[in-house]
């Protein structure tokens, strides 16, 4: 998950760990470096980290380096343009607020048992 809110990232990380998913939390630049090596199968990314204008070029770069990467884009601000851009990149759009069970079900449909990559802009120096 890419989330610029450290509290949200922590809660989501806890949910995923309890569900048995291995999770990494880091910055966009570290995420991209790991994705270029094929380290992760799923990227959870929050639209607010780079904003709509910066988000989709970043996600397109991730897909360039790892075409099989499953991306779950979470946002509380999905408009028609966001939906169109996500669809063009074949990215799953997941709207906030959501229940933990809904998140886990959505991840299950993306890739059962995959490594998850959680990124938090606030934790970029951790």
Could you please describe the fold and organization of this structure?
The two termini are about 15 Å apart. This protein has a single domain, classed as 3-Layer(aba) Sandwich (Rossmann fold). It is built from five helices and six strands. It is globular, with a radius of gyration of 13 Å. By secondary structure, it is α/β, with parallel strands linked by helices. The longest helix has 15 residues.
Gap from first CA to last CA: 16 Å
The fraction of residues in strands falls at 15-25%
Radius of gyration: 13 Å
SSE order: EHEHEHEHEHE
**How many helix segments?**
5
Largest sheet, described in full? 6 strands, parallel
- Low-confidence parts lasting 5 or more residues at pLDDT below 50? 119-126
Query: What is the C-level CATH assignment?
Result: Alpha Beta
Characterize the overall form.
globular
Structural category:
alpha/beta
Task: Quote the CATH topology.
Answer: Rossmann fold
Give the overall average pLDDT.
82
Named at the architecture level, the CATH assignment is: 3-Layer(aba) Sandwich
Oligomeric state of this protein = single chain
Query: CATH superfamily assignment?
Result: Response regulator
Helix content: 40-55%
Number of strands: 6
The total number of structural domains is: 1
């Amino acid at each position: 998950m890419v989330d610029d809110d450290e509290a949200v990232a922590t809660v989501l990380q806890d949910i995923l760990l309890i569900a048995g998913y291995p999770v990494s939390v880091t910055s966009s630049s570290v995420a991209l470096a790991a994705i270029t090596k094929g380290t992760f199968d799923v990227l959870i990314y929050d639209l607010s980290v780079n904003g709509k204008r910066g988000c989709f070029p970043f996600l397109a770069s991730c897909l360039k380096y790892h075409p099989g990467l499953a991306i779950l884009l979470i946002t509380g601000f999905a408009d028609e343009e966001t939906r169109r851009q996500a669809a063009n990149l074949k990215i799953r759009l997941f709207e906030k607020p959501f229940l933990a069970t809904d998140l886990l079900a959505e991840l299950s449909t993306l890739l059962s048992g995959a490594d998850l990559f959680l990124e938090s802009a606030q934790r970029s120096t951790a």
